[in-house]
């Protein structure tokens, strides 16, 4: 019997009802459509915690941590007992236990991990957030828990780790997995999935810059990479449909002390549990 063809890895799609709502807003008013797009862009999906993450959840000591800069509480997980700590940062619509396979292997190597549900994610409060709140959470966690030897971030968490290091997070090394890169590219991709005219990508950027009084490109990962001196391992899958591999290679090219590891066929999330990827992370961590 012939083997069934393997389904190609697909990017997450925006529900049709949201696309139709965006088009209705655009018909009524460009400003309304921009505000609607901004609302959707900053609203993560809170997925149910899968059974595979239950062990890390149950064995972690947990606490609510107040982050004064953003006036929000976040849910923090401390997994393991070692004083040698690794910070784990999930991506958009992720959870603090999502990197559990990496955490389990780090525990075997004598580390403990600190992770968290970012604002509006997992068990943390709120329904809307942006990357600057991820970064503020990371920096507050460092204040409360002390020095981290390593920081590991996935997707938006990777961008946040690089920006946090640029803003003062002290770590010996960092690992970023499937990280986004240029903010405008992310906005372009979002507007494309929302099936609005591309002018809304620029309108969305201006909306956020006016609201938060920041330059969005300042948060682009490659810009942070240019200011980072510590060793950084960049891991990305050639077939990632959500964050194209060019993001990872561009970040790597802008690092002074970067290492690049590309995989095939793992996409955006399976990469987190792949044994070869975890082995590569552990090898990188052990290098003096």
UniProtKB/TrEMBL annotation:
From the record, give the transmembrane residue ranges. Answer: none
Q: Where is the AB hydrolase-1 domain?
A: 86-183
| Gene3D superfamilies reported in the protein's UniProt record | alpha/beta hydrolase (3.40.50.1820)
* Pfam families found in the cross-reference section: Abhydrolase_1
Looking at the record's lineage, which domain of life comes first? Bacteria
The record's listing under InterPro entries reads:
AB_hydrolase, AB_hydrolase_1, AB_hydrolase_fold
Write down what this protein is called: Pimeloyl-ACP methyl ester carboxylesterase
Tell me which species this is from. Flavobacterium phragmitis
